[in-house]
Write a structure and sequence with these properties.
The protein has 2 domains: 70 residues, no CATH class; 199 residues, Rossmann fold (3-Layer(aba) Sandwich), CATH 3.40.50.300. The chain is built from 11 helices and 10 strands. Helix 8 packs parallel to helix 10. Helix 8 links the parallel strand 8 and strand 9. It has a 5-stranded parallel sheet with strand order 7-8-9-6-10, sandwiched between helices. By secondary structure, the protein is α/β, with parallel strands linked by helices.
C-alpha cells in the first residue's frame, strides 16, 4: 500500500486536484443575490455524466483513510496513451493473432497452398511476439504477398500484443512516413525527430513498403532507418506487396540486402482479396 505522498511523488495522480467536491458555475440570473456565482456539490451530479471514471472521479486513486490505492483506470489510460503514441489506427487496434481467420485462405479440402503459407506466417508472428518479450535484440519479420492477403493484419496484431505486454512500438505506414519526411524537408529538427524515433524505437512496424514514388532522398532516409536498426539488432516488422527483385528496383539493393539480413521472410497468398471477402460477407453476398 502506498501513501498519498508516495503516489504524488510518483506522478500516479491524474492532473485533477484532489479537492473536487465543489464545482464553479456562472449564474445567468441577474436577480440572484450571490454575485452571479453558484457553487454546487458534485453529489448533486450524476458521476457517470461528469467523470470518465466514476469510481475514482478521474483522480487516478482510491482513498481508504490515509492510504491511497491506484485506480484500475490508470492502467487503461496508460494503455490508451501507448496505442496513441504507437500511431496505430482505430481500425487496426482490434487485430489480434488469436482472431486470425484461416477461412479467408480457402476451404480445408481445397488446395492447401494458401493455408500453409498463412499458418507459417501466423506461427512466425506468435514466435516473434514471444521472443521480443524475452530479448529486445533479434531478427525482424518481412511479410510479402499480394494486396489483401493479410499482411497488415498480422503486423498490427504483433504491434497490439507487444503494446499490451508493455513494450514500446511504433507503427508507420510507409507512404505516410515518406509524406511526413517530405513535409519536414525544410525543417531539420522535425525530420531528425521522426528519423531518430524510427531508428531507435525498440520495435518498429513499417507497413506497405510498396511501389511508391521513391526519390534518392527518400531512399536514403529509408536506408538510414533500416541500416541503423540492423546494426543495433532492433527488430523491424515490414509488410510489402513487392517481390525481393522489385524491392531492389524501388528502394535500392543496399536497403533490400539489409532487410533480408535482418529479417525472416514469409509470403502470404489468397485466391481473392480478403477485403473483398469481408465486403461480400458483410453484404450477404
Amino acid at each position: 500500500m502506498k501513501s498519498v505522498k508516495d503516489i504524488l511523488n510518483n506522478n500516479v495522480l491524474a492532473t485533477k486536484p484532489l479537492n473536487t467536491d465543489l464545482k464553479f458555475t456562472q449564474n445567468t440570473d441577474p436577480n440572484s443575490s450571490r454575485s452571479h456565482q453558484n457553487y454546487e456539490t458534485t453529489e448533486d451530479l450524476n458521476p457517470s455524466e461528469k467523470f470518465k471514471c466514476p469510481t475514482c472521479q478521474d483522480r487516478g486513486i482510491l482513498l481508504e483513510g490515509d492510504v491511497a490505492y491506484p485506480c484500475s483506470c490508470m492502467q487503461m489510460r496508460k494503455m490508451e496513451n501507448q496505442f496513441r503514441h504507437a500511431r496505430i489506427s482505430r481500425v487496426l487496434k482490434n487485430c489480434r493473432l488469436d482472431r486470425f481467420r484461416f477461412d479467408f485462405y480457402g476451404p480445408e479440402r481445397a488446395d492447401q497452398t494458401h493455408r500453409q503459407g498463412a499458418a507459417k506466417a501466423l506461427n512466425a508472428a506468435r514466435s516473434f511476439v514471444a521472443e521480443c518479450q524475452r530479448n529486445p535484440h533479434g531478427l525482424g519479420i518481412l511479410f510479402t504477398g499480394p494486396v489483401g492477403s493479410g499482411k497488415t493484419y498480422l503486423a498490427a496484431s504483433i504491434a497490439n500484443e507487444l503494446i499490451e505486454a508493455q513494450l514500446q512500438v511504433l507503427f508507420l505506414v510507409v507512404p505516410d512516413l515518406l509524406d511526413e519526411l517530405r513535409a519536414s524537408y525544410k525543417s531539420e529538427v522535425n525530420e531528425m525527430d521522426l528519423l531518430d524515433t524510427a531508428r531507435t524505437i525498440p520495435i518498429l512496424v513499417l507497413d506497405d513498403l510498396g511501389a511508391h514514388n521513391y526519390t534518392d532522398w527518400t531512399r536514403n532516409r529509408l536506408y538510414s532507418i533500416i541500416n541503423y536498426r540492423m546494426n543495433e539488432q532492433l527488430p523491424t516488422v515490414i509488410t510489402s506487396n513487392l517481390s525481393l527483385d522489385e524491392m531492389e528496383d524501388y528502394i535500392g539493393a543496399r536497403t533490400t540486402s539489409r532487410i533480408i539480413q535482418s529479417s525472416r521472410i514469409f509470403r502470404l497468398t489468397v485466391e481473392e482479396d480478403i477485403r473483398h471477402q469481408i465486403y461480400e460477407e458483410r453484404e450477404g453476398k
